Amino acid sequence: MELHQLRYVLAVVETGSFTAAAEVVHVSQSGVSTQVQKLERELGVALFDRSGRRVTLTDDGQRLLPVLRAALEAIGEISATAADLRGLLLGSLRVGTVFGLTWPAFYDALAEIGAAHPGLDLRLREDTSSRLAQAVRRGELDVALVAWAEQPPDGLEAFAIFDDPLVAVISPDHPWAARRRIRPAELAGMDLIALPEGTGDRAALNALLAGLHGATAPRWEVSTPAVVQKLAVRGLGVGVVSAATCRRWDDIRAVPIDAPSVRSRLGAVWRPGPTRAARALLALLRDRSALAGARRDGS
């Protein structure tokens, strides 16, 4: 069993084809295919089902995948430990974040860790909270910033960065614009603008609507917070997002919804036993989340 064979297997898993995997690992397609077949013969199991247009893992492959990932991570830790002894941080750091994240401190943390450790292969991916959490569980991401309504995603370590109430986002000339608060029952029957399923703000909105008589599904379901703003400011509906989501929006009114028990939370999640690079990023995010909390509290 060769180390490069394990890397080729993971490249095929992540890209869905031998051709795309070959581009990622900078080896010919036939070279990747040959090495994977050699590994399958050595293990005595078929890792991939090659019958469809997209290469997929067999049941045996699904069972072996976590072990293969763990083996590569263990090898990576050897290099990382040696680098740590030399005062360096090497290896890879795969980070995820929800679409449209506007927290500047997160990007500052990425810039700081990238500048301090130029040998680190730093990568970023945007997606919905639910898909990011799945990617962390599968080992495709090391750290992700995701949102949740009540409890952090199952099976992952987590800490909250923002813990915010829901607000109704409306245009300045909306009848509610002068209001100090909106009762949840008033949202029933309104043309609501919401983020998609899988986001923390939507999970919180669903929890809110679940207890309302006559509540219907949102009329507008959009992919990013920026679209919520664009629709709300034009009077096309009432956006429902967290206070943090719309904190920097112009030309709108954000009226608190009187539902203190329903909140949207955003924080960092990772698998138990994070890599050194992941721990370094998490330490930076903790420091910045503490500062963010202090600013919100006025201290």
Description:
The protein has 299 residues and is of the alpha/beta class. The chain has two domains: 1-88, Winged helix-like DNA-binding domain superfamily/Winged helix DNA-binding domain (Arc Repressor Mutant, subunit A, Orthogonal Bundle), CATH 1.10.10.10; 92-299, 3-Layer(aba) Sandwich (D-Maltodextrin-Binding Protein, domain 2), CATH 3.40.190. It has nine helices and eleven strands. It has helices at 3-15, 18-25, 29-43, 59-85, 104-116, 129-137, 200-210, 225-233, 276-297, and strands spanning 48-49, 56-57, 91-98, 120-127, 143-148, 157-170, 192-194, 220-221, 238-242, 253-256, 263-270. Strands 3, 4, 5, 6, 7, 8, 9, 10 and 11 form a nine-stranded mixed beta sheet that branches. Strands 1-2 form a two-stranded antiparallel ribbon. A hairpin with a 6-residue loop joins strand 1 (48-49) and strand 2 (56-57). Helix 2 packs across helix 3. It holds the Pfam family LysR_substrate. GO terms for molecular function: DNA binding; DNA-binding transcription factor activity. This is HTH-type transcriptional regulator CynR.
